[in-house]
Amino acid sequence: MPDEIPQTKEKKFLKQRLEKLPCQVGLHSHCCKHCLMGPCILTNSNDVGVCGANQDVIASRNLLRFTAAGASCHTGHALHLMEFLNKEFPNNYIEKKAPKYLIKLWKKLGLMPKVKFEHFKEISEALHASTLGTNADYQDILSKTVKLGIIDGYLGLYLATELEDKAFGKPKIRQGKINLGVIKPEKVNIAVHGHEPAFAEALAKEALKKENKDINLVGVCCTGASLLARHGIPLASNVVFQEEVIATGSIDSLVVDFQCILPSLVDLAECYKTTIITTNPIAKISGTTYLPVSTPNDAKRIAKQIIKISRDNFKKRNKDIKIEQKEVDAVIGFNENLAKELSIKLKNKEIKGIIAVIGCKNPRVKESWLPIFKKLSENYIILTSGCMAFEFGSAGMLDGKRIFHLGSCVNNSRIAEIFNRIAKLHKKKITDMPFIVSAPAPMTEKCVAIGFFFASLGVDVHFGYPMMITSDTNMEDFLRTVLKEHFESRIFLETDPEKFMEEIK
Ligand code: BF8
To answer: What global pTM score does this model have?
Structure first.
């Protein structure tokens, strides 16, 4: 691990647009757009909307909708995979995967989807409950949000990871390369970006063939993290540097599936003569080439087609380009015994606990979190995934000894499973173990849904940016205290890295 953590690199393009400040009312989630008497803006704690809804009701409804959207992304990811792989939806999946004592608790609290596909009804019910004139009990609304967390975790993260592992193989420990420097101007560069790696897997298979030595396949965001973990395909960027990937001027085509793909890429691609190819009907983007992939046969055929498009683009582009950023070596993955090994370390008091550092890299977060996690890694093991794993990687901190890269965001189920196995080995509940989840820079609805999933398991969850809750509100109080009573966990906001460290030390 380096002594000095390198400074965060410039996000040239995003930076200009970030100058536009976020709406301060929206940031506190005190605006309501759910009916046409509004939109209503509640600027002080005694205000109510035209319908009479107060700040707590409005903020909790917003949070429920936010989480429902996050859960729909992960369950949709699993559904798309099942359709692609022609698999049947499993029966009683949550019962098969979750610890028995939690199933008992969730059933008692009325939080379990009962029949096949009922989780999609739950997502739709969340919209119903949060519409004008339906649920106006903020604590009940927040309980429904935890229910969506359970759905997100099992019928999204767990199911998607299981399907991917069965179809494309389980990741192993390997050396990987991370950063923009993995793009090679002298090669035909194809970048894959998004979340659902079914097509990217077919493209990787093709790109790795002997006759395609001129092709350099690189990843962006979670599709990239998934290929890095399974095949060692280099990872160029997380969500915040995706524009810089194209702006290297060396990407011949960028292939996207769905989620976290910035619409701004289209104009940039035009400037740099990159072909953007969309592959999923749920994520068409105007101004791009649409090559739909819905079966493994489509994937094979279109992978070859994309290689041809990229080679044609390569002939026309300038190869005399320097990419400033160097590639960084990283240890990726984990072995099957990780839970056992960590359990022994805990028993022997070699470590104080395990911190899962997960989620996005919201460019609004100005605080520097890596130095704090570096300090904490002296006493804690860190498991990381998604965009935060890229942050650790590009700073040279993924050593596979104290900090482990566990994969994409749906692979957060691996973290949940490690928590579950360690707790079992200690004959304790998950909530009684020294585990914590931190999302220091949350950005997407998905990240919030994942937070509620871990809270439903009994793990304390930290957010480093106001994710629809702000300090000293009833909402925060409920998530900090009442949640503890029912779900044996808390969700808390702490934007100051030093205070966070003090809190868990
Ligand atoms: O699922 S961490 S910004 S890339 S949502 Fe998106 Fe957030 Fe990155 Fe992957 Ni996860």
So the answer is: 0.96
